[in-house]
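User: Sequence in, structure out. Go.
Assistant: Echoing your sequence, followed by the structure tokens.
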Amino acid sequence: MSTAEQPTPGKRRGRRPGGQDTRAALVAAAREVFSESGYEGATVRAIAARAGVDAAMVNHWFGGKEGLFAQAVLQLPFDPIQLLSELLDGPVDDLGKRIVRRFLTVWDATDGGAFPALVRSIASHDQAALSLKDFLIRHVLENVVGRVSPDRRELRATLCASQMVGMGMARYVAKFEPFSTTDVETLAAAVGPTLQRYLTGDID
């Protein structure tokens, strides 16, 4: 066999190898497919095909569709502990504005990131709703409320969450104009006082 006819070493053909690049490809593909189809409509086969890998890799890396959903959709671009510290760093009277500003700034950086996939999946999958509640209400907002409010911690946190999820839907999923393109500071000034009342004001 001549040199020209010999196969070039190191080149791979077909599907991706089962390494970290496969995991990253599955996460990226899952975000797209969950966003397009929601949890129930998204299949492991469709996600794997989008990623260019064997469907068995989903079980290998994530233990199934549930695990992949948790990693792809709920893996948020910030650390909850650091976020809590940032939100509480400043005057209590400006806390509502800081919350709006911080969340929109984070989501705007990725044009909503995984938020559309999460919202579309909530309607069809109980675990998605429970996961959102666990993160947004229990890990973030209830901790914030517990530092600044004397009463009704869970209700106040839930009211704040309703505002935040509503903003996310209007800005990144439904893309209502002019809300979806209004600058963050304008929205923080407009929506922040509502969150402030939920946090520290009279809600009776």
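User: And one key feature?
Assistant: The CA atoms of residues 54 and 106 lie 33 Å apart.
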